[in-house]
């Protein structure tokens, strides 16, 4: 029992201290059998060993870390081992669970800056878009101030400025320019944006960058022109409008084709038939034939008016049929937020506010493919220079690489921080893209492996546009930001620009 063990231990202590007499010892040992004495000693030794082992095992190790830091480190190590490594093992170690590996800062340095879009007032005007000219020494940028500047990239010195033709002096303000494109003839520039202060109409202009002369203009009556793109065909350009339509504009002759072609109202169809008929009469018939048609021909509107004069009850049926046609043929694609020409086989792609990317045939105007990105609007597109592929980005912050012929999603790159994506540009070679977002950070991605290579913060607020210089030097990045400045960043070396 416990009491017996305590008595025995007390006797053993007294014996060790010499307090127990010899007679007491003899008397006690006579009462104990030899086997019980041996068993008692063995148990005491085993208990001492167990106590020593327990103390060594549970002794607090000296450490300089606080308890919370050690627990956090243990949690991170366990999380990487259990979750992130397992999730990322099939993605070339670029996607791990719900997190991305932190990317290094890009080996780029600030080179120059263009200042004139900001203005001198307290409320700064934004620089909305920027492109590199074909000589690779100049850039063109436009902004909310309504001006498009051509300037030297190396120094930021202005070379030329453009604004729409108007009476001088004019008290009418200039409206924001939202998109600019450099045409393939290396002489003309296409710029477009709002046509009035209420943003109910849009305007596009073609002008000479060396002298700032306006050569052509186009007015969209139903919405602001949000995006533009050049085409390989002679003097054909693309305009993406807020009214959900994409326009192919032949600017020397002011002819336009509105896509989707069959999304037209009954009145638009009537006007188109009547216009084509009058063009045929005036340009293809001789004098006798035109005299005959002038006496006996009537237009569609005149024909319907005469029928309604005889049978007025038909008007309700015609109105019902018109409403049914207009309902089923209404264009519900959403604003055309970006349009890019695919440099193969006369094709182009458009990004829409309904979260879809559409692929078009520029020859026939046929819609070839519809790709559903996500539920959020798609803001930016970039066409690959070597393949029939585009990269899309939108309000969700997700980058998607699309195969245009098949409509298949090849890669998805989740930009977990940064907010909506506003601009995308391919680096020459087609393996990397430069992405500008609302957090003011430029990120460079490898589209072959869906890997975030590096990033750098421009410190100018939301990024509205990015452009990449194909040479002089290769990989040079131009960034237009909300604070009204256009900043230029050069790679530290050509190896940093292409690797």
Q: What is the radius of gyration computed over CA atoms, rounded to a whole number of angstroms?
A: 39 Å
Low-confidence stretches: 91-98
Helix fraction, binned, reads: 25-40%
Distance between the termini: 80 Å
Average of pLDDT: 83
Number of strands: 28
Largest sheet: 4 strands, antiparallel
Derived from helix and strand composition plus strand pairing, the structural class reads alpha+beta
Helix run count: 9
Give the CA-based shape. elongated
Beta-strand portion reads 25-35%
- Order of strands, main sheet, comes to 1-28-27-26
Overview of this protein structure:
The chain has helices at 2-17, 22-31, 34-57, 67-88, 266-284, 287-296, 300-310, 314-328, 494-498; strands at 108-114, 127-132, 138-143, 148-152, 158-162, 177-182, 188-194, 202-208, 214-220, 225-230, 236-241, 246-250, 255-259, 336-342, 347-352, 356-361, 367-372, 378-383, 389-394, 398-403, 408-414, 421-426, 432-437, 441-446, 451-457, 463-469, 476-481, 486-491. By secondary structure, it is α+β, with helices and mostly antiparallel strands. Strand 3 (138-143) and strand 4 (148-152) form a beta hairpin.
Q: Which helices and strands appear, and what pairs or packs with what?
A:
Elements: H1 2-17, H2 22-31, H3 34-57, H4 67-88, E1 108-114, E2 127-132, E3 138-143, E4 148-152, E5 158-162, E6 177-182, E7 188-194, E8 202-208, E9 214-220, E10 225-230, E11 236-241, E12 246-250, E13 255-259, H5 266-284, H6 287-296, H7 300-310, H8 314-328, E14 336-342, E15 347-352, E16 356-361, E17 367-372, E18 378-383, E19 389-394, E20 398-403, E21 408-414, E22 421-426, E23 432-437, E24 441-446, E25 451-457, E26 463-469, E27 476-481, E28 486-491, H9 494-498
Antiparallel strand pairs: 1-28, 2-3, 3-4, 4-5, 6-7, 7-8, 8-9, 10-11, 11-12, 12-13, 14-15, 15-16, 16-17, 18-19, 19-20, 20-21, 22-23, 23-24, 24-25, 26-27, 27-28
């Amino acid at each position: 029992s416990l009491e017996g063990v305590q008595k025995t231990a007390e006797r053993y202590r007294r014996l060790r201290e010499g307090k127990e007499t010899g007679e007491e010892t003899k008397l006690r040992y006579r009462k104990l059998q030899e086997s019980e004495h041996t068993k008692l000693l063995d148990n005491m030794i085993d208990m001492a060993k167990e106590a020593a082992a327990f103390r060594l095992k549970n002794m607090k190790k000296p450490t300089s870390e606080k308890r919370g830091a050690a627990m956090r480190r243990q949690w991170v190590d366990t999380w990487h081992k259990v979750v992130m490594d397992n999730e990322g093992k099939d993605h070339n170690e670029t996607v791990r669970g719900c997190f991305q590996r932190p990317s290094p800062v890009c080996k780029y340095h600030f080179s120059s800056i263009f200042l004139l879009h900001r203005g001198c007032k307290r409320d700064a005007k934004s620089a909305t878009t920027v492109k590199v000219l074909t000589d690779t020494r100049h850039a063109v940028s436009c902004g909310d101030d309504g001006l498009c500047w051509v300037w030297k990239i190396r120094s930021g010195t202005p070379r030329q400025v453009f604004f729409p033709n108007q009476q001088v002096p004019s008290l009418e303000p200039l409206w924001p320019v939202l998109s600019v494109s450099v045409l393939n003839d290396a002489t003309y520039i296409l710029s477009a944006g709002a046509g009035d202060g209420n943003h109910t109409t849009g305007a596009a202009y073609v002008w000479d960058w060396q002298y700032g002369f306006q050569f052509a203009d186009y007015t969209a009556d139903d919405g602001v022109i949000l995006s533009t793109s050049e085409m390989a065909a002679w003097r054909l350009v693309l305009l993406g409008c807020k009214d959900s339509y994409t326009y192919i504009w032949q600017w020397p002759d002011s002819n336009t084709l509105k896509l989707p072609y069959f999304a037209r109202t009954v009145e638009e169809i009537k006007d188109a038939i009547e216009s084509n008929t009058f063009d045929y009469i005036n340009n293809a018939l001789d004098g006798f034939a035109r005299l005959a048609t002038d006496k006996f021909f009537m237009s569609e509107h005149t024909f319907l008016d005469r029928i309604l004069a005889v049978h007025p009850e038909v008007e309700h049926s015609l109105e019902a049929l018109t409403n049914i046609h207009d309902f089923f043929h209404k264009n519900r694609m959403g604003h055309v937020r970006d349009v890019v020409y695919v440099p193969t086989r006369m094709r182009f792609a458009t990004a829409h506010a309904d979260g879809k990317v559409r692929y078009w045939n520029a020859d026939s105007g046929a819609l070839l493919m519809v790709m559903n990105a996500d539920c959020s609007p798609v803001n930016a597109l970039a066409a690959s220079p070597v393949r029939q592929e585009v990269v899309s980005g939108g309000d969700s912050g997700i980058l998607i690489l699309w195969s245009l012929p098949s409509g298949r999603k090849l890669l998805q790159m989740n930009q977990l921080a940064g907010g909506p994506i506003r601009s995308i540009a391919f680096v020459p070679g087609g393996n990397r893209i430069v992405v500008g977002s609302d957090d003011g950070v430029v990120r460079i991605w490898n589209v072959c492996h869906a890997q975030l290579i590096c990033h750098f913060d421009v410190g100018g607020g939301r990024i509205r546009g990015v452009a990449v210089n194909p040479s002089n030097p290769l990989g040079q990045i131009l960034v237009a930001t909300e604070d009204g400045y256009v900043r230029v960043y050069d790679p530290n070396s050509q190896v940093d620009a292409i690797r």
